[in-house]
Amino acid sequence: MPQVCLYPKDVARLTGTGYDAGKRLLQRIRTQLRKPARAYISVAEFCAYTRLPEAEVQAALNGSPASANRG
């Protein structure tokens, strides 16, 4: 099943930053979307904010063969 929500660890891995930077980015997204502090951020919301292609983010999160072969 594809991952729907993002956690700081996921954001850190996707952006190449640390865990704390991932937390801050998720909080900025929540603030912009006017969500409560502990609300989940979806992959679609993250992609809309960062302008990253949703298909590539989903592939990286779910460990598709396409993303595994890039290393």
Describe this structure in words.
With 71 residues, the protein is mainly alpha-helical. Helices cover 62% and strands 6% of the residues. It has five helices and two strands; from the N terminus they run E-H-H-E-H-H-H. A two-stranded antiparallel ribbon has the order 1-2. Helix 1 packs across helix 2 (19-33). The chain is globular. Residues 67-71 have low confidence and may be disordered.
Give the tally of β-strands.
2
Q: What is the terminal-to-terminal distance?
A: 24 Å
Helical stretch count?
5
Uncertain stretches = 67-71
Task: Specify Rg, calculated over alpha carbons.
Answer: 12 Å
Helix fraction, binned, reads: 55-70%
Shape: globular
Summary tags:
71 residues, mainly alpha, 5 helices, disordered C terminus
Write the layout of secondary structure elements.
Elements: E1 5-6, H1 8-15, H2 19-33, E2 41-42, H3 43-50, H4 54-62, H5 65-68
Antiparallel strand pairs: 1-2
Brief digest:
This protein has 71 residues and is mostly helical. The chain contains 5 helices and 2 strands, in the order βααβααα.
